[in-house]
Structures are given as structure tokens and as C-alpha cells.
């Protein structure tokens, strides 16, 4: 019997796009989408609902479906994480440990997402190197750094084939903005198209590393399909595509649609200021051939075109 793929956080920002991509490559009957509260009614595929902090329930789903690969995506993001740090720790860490323990016993291959949030204010902010200072100042970042160390440990100690990337801010149109600091770069499109205006929660000169979701999905699948002998990083690969300031994005959007952008920095600003502006991902490019496709103009146009269809805007 073929081993199946299980995706946690299947209906979150990344999962909403990774699940269909995996279904396309490996067949619908081979992908198990694990969600929690909001499972879309029109989802076409195998679905399970579980509380990710319930270790027994998670393990029983892994057993039930004869799983060979797990994409363990479930996570609360940075801004939401600051509202309830304890919940963030529990959600972001408990399920990961359960999945890794099961992976040891059953020789699973595991993907786990880290983030630019693993870095902190003491990290060099421009072209942040692969190996550098990691002193995050958000609970989300703390869980990402702890997770990086945990997956690295499970690889060294038990030989688990676990792979990871430090995603930059991901920009996508399928899932609505959901509690991340980089989500201003998503919300600006949503509000821009529905209201013609956007109040941005960071300063105009706030520059962060970003990536269009299609690149993010391709990176994930390419890393998981890469020859393990080529992988020199088993905590998490730096991954990059584009970097821009909030005002540069606003300008690019205004080439296509009229959006009045105002700026009212709040607690998100401190988080944004603690993260890099750009990332050196040359190790990923060397080890498994990573190459991004979406530039700022291409991403902007693709977002506008897709959201116009989604919102029925002509
Ligand atoms: N997009 C995430 C956030 O802003 C960063 O990984 O929280």
C-alpha cells in the first residue's frame, strides 16, 4: 500500500495552496488534510479534524492513514502570538514533538516551516546569512527557533529526514490575512480592491523579505523532493525572493488600481523592526537549486487579477 501524505494546518495560509498542489502531484486519495475549526465546505479531498495539542488524537490519525510524509504546518503567527503567548507555545510546539516522535518509530519524512521570525533585533538585517545570531523577541519567533533546534536534534539523534525553510512573508490571495506581521502586504490588496483604501499598521519605509505563494509552494515541494545527500542544512534553510518597503508596494499597486494608503504604525512595527530586511539564501540555491520566479511587479499583477475574480470586481 502506498504511504500517504498528511498536512496539518491544511486550511491555513500555506496549507490552502499546498494541499491542492500535493493532490495534483500525488493524487487526491493520497493526501490527508488535517484542520481544526474552519474546514471549508467545498473542500474536495480526505479531511480529518483534530486538536493539534491532543497528542493521542494526532498519533491515531497518523496511524489510521498509513502516513509516510507529514507537512506539519499548523502554527499561530507572530502578531496573534503576542496576544496569547502560552497558547502559541502549545500550538506551535506540542504537535511538532508528537509528529517527530511518530516519525522516529515509523521512518516518516517531515516538512516543518520556520520563518524569518526566528531572527531578532541582534541579527544582521541586510542579506542575513544562513548561520547567524538567532535571538527572536516574539513568542512566534521563539517557537520557530525552538522548532528548528528540535528538528535538527531529531535528525542528528534519530536520523529523521526532516526538512525546513525559513519562509519570508508569504503573499497570497486564497486565504485571507491571518495574524502575521507581514500580512500588511496581503491586506493592502484585500482592502485596496474592496474599499479602495488601506490603513497600514507599519511605517511606509518598513522593508521586509517577501515571497509570492506560488514560489513558496514550489520551494517546499522542491526541497522535499531533493536528494537528501545534497542537503547540508537540517535546522532550516534561509529562503528568499523579493524585498520591498510598504510604500514601494503601495506604489506598485497604484499602477493598476487606485488605493489610498495611510500609515498608522502600531505594535506590529516593533515586530517588523526586529526582523531582517533581506535574506541571503545562497545555501538553498546551491544545495537544491532554489530559484524564485515572482518579482514585485509580477506578484502584484497576479494578486490583483486573482482577487478581482474572487471579489467579482470588474
Ligand atoms: N508571515 C509571518 C508573520 O508575519 C512570518 O513568518 O507572522
TrEMBL record:
Pfam families: Epimerase
GO biological process, one term: L-threonine catabolic process
Domain NAD-dependent epimerase/dehydratase span(s) in chain numbering: 5-226
Molecular function terms from GO: L-threonine 3-dehydrogenase activity
InterPro entries reported for this sequence: Epimerase_deHydtase (IPR001509), NAD(P)-bd_dom_sf (IPR036291), NAD(P)_epim/dehydratase (IPR051225)
Stored PANTHER family: L-THREONINE 3-DEHYDROGENASE, L-THREONINE 3-DEHYDROGENASE, MITOCHONDRIAL
Family as reported in the entry's similarity comment: Belongs to the NAD(P)-dependent epimerase/dehydratase family.
The protein's name: NAD-dependent epimerase/dehydratase domain-containing protein
Lineage: Bacteria, Candidatus Gottesmaniibacteriota
